[in-house]
Structure formats: C-alpha cells, structure tokens
Specification:
The protein has 401 residues and is of the alpha+beta class. The protein has two domains: 279 residues, 3-Layer(aba) Sandwich (Aminopeptidase), CATH 3.40.630.10; 110 residues, Alpha-Beta Plaits (2-Layer Sandwich), CATH 3.30.70. It has eleven helices and 18 strands. The longest helix has 25 residues. It binds zinc ion (ZN).
Amino acid sequence: MSKAEWESNEEINIFRNYLRINTAHPNIDYTACVEYLKKQAASLDLPVDVLYPANEDNPVVVMKWEGKQPELPSIILNSHTDVVPVYPEKWTHEPFAADMDDEGRIFARGTQDTKEIGTQYLGAIRALKAKGFQPKRTVYITFVPDEEVGGHLGMREFVETDYFKKMNVGFSLDEGSASFDENYYVYYAERTAWPIRFKISGTAGHGSLLLPKTAGEKLNFIVNKMMEYRASQVKLLKEKSLFFGDVTTINLTQLSGGVQNNVVPALLEVVFDLRIAIDVDLEALEKQFRDWCEEAGGGVELVFERKDDFVPPTKIGASNPLWVALEKAMNDLNLKIKPQVCPGGTDSRYLRPKGVSALGFSPMNNNTPPLPHDHDEFIRADVYLHGIEIYEKIIPAITDI
Ligand code: ZN
C-alpha cells in the first residue's frame, strides 16, 4: 500500500482521529474521548455504557457485543484511554497530530500504548460483523482510564462494581507490547511491585567529628546490600538469557536528606523501585530487608510506598482454553506466540484476582521498535492493519471456547 492509500483507509482514519484526542496525564479531560468512543460504538451498532466507578472525572466505556450463548462467561477486550505525558521538544512530530510519513509510520503518543489495540478491536469487529459473524460468548470491549498512573481510578474500582459482576467475565485480553524477536509475546503474569523507602536515622552533629553510627554509614550499608542484590539479578539475566520479567529488578530512584555541608544529618532517605520475580518468596525477602535494617546498626525504618499482593499467574498451555485458542489462531496465521512475564504493570493484575483468565497481547513483534512512553512513539500503518487481521482471526477463536 502507498501513503495515499493508507490516508484514505477508513480504519487508519479512525485510529488517527482517536490519537488526536489528547488524553495525556495529568488532569485528563476524557469528554472528547468518551464522545468519540460512543460514536464508534454507534457505527458498529453496539450498545455502550459509560460508568464512573471511582469519580466523575474517570469514565469507563463499555461496549457490548452480545453472544449467541450469553449465559456463558464473557470475554473482555480491554485497552486504556489514558497516555503518559510527552516532552514535545523531544519529538520530531507533533505528539497529538498523528502525522504519517512516506513509509506509513504514524507518530503520536498512544500509538503503541494502547490506543492502537482499542481501535484494532473495533476494526476486527467491523470486519467480522460484515461477514455476518456473531460470537458464541458475549464480548465486552472496555476502555478504561487511569492505567498509566496505577489504575486506581479505573480498572481497580471497576472490577468492584455490580456492573462488572453482572458481566460474568471469564477471560480477557489486555495490552501487551512489541517484542524483541519474531515471536508475539503473550503476558500471563506480572511481577510484584514493592517500591520501598529506607528512613535512616543516625547520630547527628558537627561535620568535623567522627561520630559513631551516622546515617551516612548506615545508608552506605543499605545501598551496598541492595546493589549486591541488583548485581545478582543482572548476572542471572545475562547467564540464562532471560527476559526482564523473569528476574527481580532493583533501581535506586530517590535520595534525600541533609541540611548543609558541615552538619552530619539525623536522617537520610533512600527509595528503590523494586519489582519482584514471580518465583521469589515474598515473606523471606521482606525478612531479608528487615535484617539489613538491623545489621546497618538499627534506627532504620522500612516503609513500603506500595505493597502489592502476589497475584497468581494466568495458566498457560493445554489447561487454559483461552491460551489454546489464541495459540491455534496465531499458528493458523503462521505466527508464533511466546509466554512471558510482563516487565511492567497492567490492568490485568486487577482482573486475575477476580478469577479472570487474563492475557496481555498486542499484535506487534519485532516489526515495531518498542517505544511506549518514549519520544516519537509510532506504529506503521501496515502493522496496524495487520493487527486488525490478527484480531479478526483471534476473536472468533477465543469467543468460541
Ligand atoms: Zn499501557
């Protein structure tokens, strides 16, 4: 296809117009986005509800495609409507113009995370409806807010509503990402996020002395222990050629304390971003951290800035009909999927504890450089359209299980 053909393609236009609605954090006004999605639902003849589970600023848009056997557990096709902020000066294209270059690359925030899957689902449904297809199970296409800042005002609240309970959801597809090889990654689990803060108290006094048990010495001890742990994970990643999602990642992200250069401070604080691999014993790890606080000389307080519960992974392989159907549909297209633990967090972590078999999948492999949250985020028009064809194959397969 040529640029002119892509520019007149209806699906590409629907996608580009969706990208042009600025839904970047912070203080998002979702009004135009909701109106746009309602218009899309109307054009597909799908009933649509708008819910506000957390507050009136955070709408959840739910479209319904009734199945032939609506009594069966339903399937969610989920995406989030919010996107992360941009540094416009770092972009070579205006981030909300959805420019297309001669190669068909469409530049905009959200082209990979996750406006593309939102309208790809709709494009696939349009094609399937045109062929007269009706799913066996009811399909809900959900568009949720707030995912990029944790989903607390979006999916987390939505799954607690009566509306959600009545949907009787058994399975879901949510966002994945581009991959690093020809395989399409399918995320079946997420690591446990425990960002932690050490509040380190020590002997304060004049900077000309050598006081015992200073906060600086204790900080040094704690940072060393954490960095040794980090090094062990770097080694594991390299030696076993693992994916980031398979190991624990530890990064020092914040440091604070002190008043002036000749005063030994009473308090220093250090924060680590910590995402724990799914095979780690969380209780033992917490004990290890607490032991280090003691070994540092005491006076060290461990604060969990967030302490997620362990979420059991979604089953993969023959025991999960969703997995089987997805894999078969992809193999029929001569495409391969590969199970991975998602390195980041997605809304699937709120669905899994509700008994939903949740998989993360975006129809991109290494045909797309992974640029979510990056400058000049783009997707190629042909990759986008191929994604619709992939869903056109996947949706009948997974709704017929
Ligand atoms: Zn996302």
